[in-house]
Design brief:
single chain, 180 residues, alpha/beta, Rossmann fold
Amino acid sequence: MKLHIILIGFMGTGKTTVGTIIAETLSRQMVDTDQYLEEKRGKTIPDIFRDEGEARFRDCEHNVLKELIQSPKPLVITTGGGIVLRKDNVKLMQNSGFVVALTASRNALIERLQHDASRPLLQGDLAQRIDRLLTERRNAYDFAHFKVDTTDKTPDEVAQIIVAQCQQHSGVFKDIFRRQ
């Protein structure tokens, strides 16, 4: 089985930006689950939340993850922050790739997300919403094979750290570091 590099973490930790750099470095395709879902459904994430609710969104997110995991080519997959809320998603990711959790301090998240109105779960008092979600998801990302705190690092630095870990674990995670 070919393994994917899967980035998980809270909103605003830099998953999509870092994933793009990793994909370019490794000559892989990068797919963001939220963007892919929006393209498939022809609706934005906020519209899906508003029209169909969070539970339906989570079902769609799960189906997208299952589809991407089946790719015959190893991908760099970046995920929405809440994809870890379903145990079946966690199992899929653990069994299909090198899972890297990106983290950041509360203050960094507030700073990064303060002008982003596209996130349905952050509507209202931003700091209060972030605090609540961080509390609810306190251990949700702990299953990752590796963690990187992005607070004081550039996206390039984070990507370099992850690529180095992929190289280091290439024997353990068969086929994970393969330049195509």
